């Protein structure tokens, strides 16, 4: 079994070995990979829906790692007892679902050492929520897979100075570290925003959305300048 670039990148952001739960595991590819290739002391794969839970059970059985991966049926972090694992992965879901999973079992989430999040959408509002709810962003990465960009956000409990909301939309650690894909990602985003501006501004040049996107594009130019100064 070969991990996709997205799943491989998630694994690269874990601090291994660790005790870990993969929430919303579906196929259980990451837990199986960890069972076969690392010394993780505990590996839990969980899903709240019966079909993916059955798929995870079956894949774990086929990979012959039943003794290493504990597959559980249940919602979010509620499958865990207090301090059962150090790390959680919550990947391949919308930002709003991720927020809900963390918010529903907030005390358990605050008891984890690190949470590796990979939202399929809404990364900006997820970051804002995390920072407003005592989570600190300690690492981030972009990964390109199947012609799409995916964001990965690693958080730990703790306070973080509330950053500029534009930086939270883009990813403060992506900028600080000068992620190698950030420049291309920003170019794509700008192209998307310019298209929206063009579509709306034909009839409504002063529409608040047009003004907001133009201001965000100005801020983006500043970020791009910083990135180009890293590479000089
Ligand atoms: C698109 S799959 C992602 C699978 C895998 N994590 C990945 O990134 O490739 C999303 C999975 O999350 C599960 N899921 C959605 N909400 C959940 C929740 N609150 N608790 C546990 N699992 C959830 C779904 O049943 C589904 O199997």
From TrEMBL:
Transmembrane segments: none annotated. Keywords: Methyltransferase, Transferase. Pfam families: Methyltransf_18 (PF12847). GO terms for molecular function: tRNA (adenine(22)-N1)-methyltransferase activity. InterPro entries: SAM-dependent_MTases_sf, TrmK. The keyword Metal-binding does not apply. GO terms for biological process: methylation. This is Putative SAM-dependent methyltransferase. It comes from Halobacteroides halobius (strain ATCC 35273 / DSM 5150 / MD-1).
